[in-house]
Amino acid sequence: MDLGSLSENKVAFFSTQPYDKTFFNKYNESGFELDFFETQLNPQTATLIQECAIVCVFVNDIVNEAVIKQLAEKNVKIIALRCAGFNNVDLEAAKKYNLKVCRVPAYSPQAVAEHAMAMILTLNRKTHKAYNRVREQNFSLNGLLGFDLFGKTIGIIGTGNIGKAFAKIALGFGCKVVAYDIITDPEMEKDGIVFTDLKTIFKESDIISLHCPLNEQTKHLINKNAITLMKNHVMIINTSRGGLIETASVIEGLKEGKIGYLGIDVYEQEEKLFFRDLSADIIQDDAIQRLMSFPNVLVTAHQAFFTNEALTQIALVTFDNIKSLLLENDIKNKAALLV
Ligand code: NAD
């Protein structure tokens, strides 16, 4: 890749947290110069980039056409996502301005799948409440009644890397697993997973777990119509992307008691909230406040990926992607190269 006079050794990171610095510094075996910005990338902050051909972004950075145009004017050549999802990047604009875009397609599917199961177990057995209760010397079990997972039907939407790992965990608990994906997976069928249509998933599942990407087809997949089809007291788990759920409809479903449990690691408006300590602030987002007020809703702040193994892979693969693009203008793992 011809970088002209620009330093091919410099990478500008946006939305940087202390753990990003730790892992990227630790695995920087090629000696890249790393410029860490805590701020999100957006049309205003793009001006921070100087003499740099590579920009590294995360889930809530704004990489729309306005930002990409600015990056191109600054001679940025590579946008390296240090995550799997890429719904925040305008790929058409990247093509138009001749920028390469890469991602980390499967850094640790188990990390996210295990977190989805942790949310199910917590919501079901109410361990978060039990923890607080015994600390107050309240050893009563009233209100903590759960159900056996064994024999229940879990519906999985999206059976890629994470959905597949989650299905294996669900099978291990003795659940019946039904799945919907635009591509059927014969190996999963051999394991006893039944592929079916979306309506059947909604109608038959005791628990629905979302593992598909956010795109035009999947936006607000969980809406009023879908909720109407679901079983009473259904549990919905979303560790994928907030936009898969129409928040107002889910709040209605919770108020009516139709939805019995909701576990979300992602939220449609999360970019204004997540990855920050806002404990002294007045939150202006009424929908998240309403969600957090329900006793049967568990919110985690996009932490499903957050394991030692995942952060190690993210750093290693991101550096590999960048090196491959610089040296060969290509990446062997086709799933990693978006443009
Ligand atoms: P993947 O690409 O391996 O799998 C996605 C699956 O969704 C594929 O099998 C694909 O065919 C399917 N799919 C695409 N369109 C669909 C549709 N309209 N309906 C049903 N299925 C559809 O991706 P993955 O690694 O399994 O990740 C899944 C999602 O999880 C990512 O897109 C990302 O948004 C999210 N994620 C969240 C975290 C977190 O920390 N919470 C971490 C990593 C990934």
TrEMBL record:
Domain named D-isomer specific 2-hydroxyacid dehydrogenase catalytic: residues: 11-333
Record keyword Membrane present: no
Leader sequence residues: none
Keyword ATP-binding carried by entry: no
InterPro entries: D-isomer_2_OHA_DH_cat_dom, D-isomer_DH_CS, D-isomer_DH_CS1, D-isomer_DH_NAD-bd, D-LDH-like, NAD(P)-bd_dom_sf
EC number of this enzyme: 1.1.1.28
Domain D-isomer specific 2-hydroxyacid dehydrogenase NAD-binding: from-to ranges: 117-304
Source taxon at top rank: Bacteria
A molecular function (GO) term: D-lactate dehydrogenase (NAD+) activity
SUPFAM superfamilies linked to this entry: Formate/glycerate dehydrogenase catalytic domain-like, NAD(P)-binding Rossmann-fold domains
Keywords in alphabetical order: NAD, Oxidoreductase
Protein family according to the UniProt entry: Belongs to the D-isomer specific 2-hydroxyacid dehydrogenase family.
Protein name: 2-hydroxyacid dehydrogenase
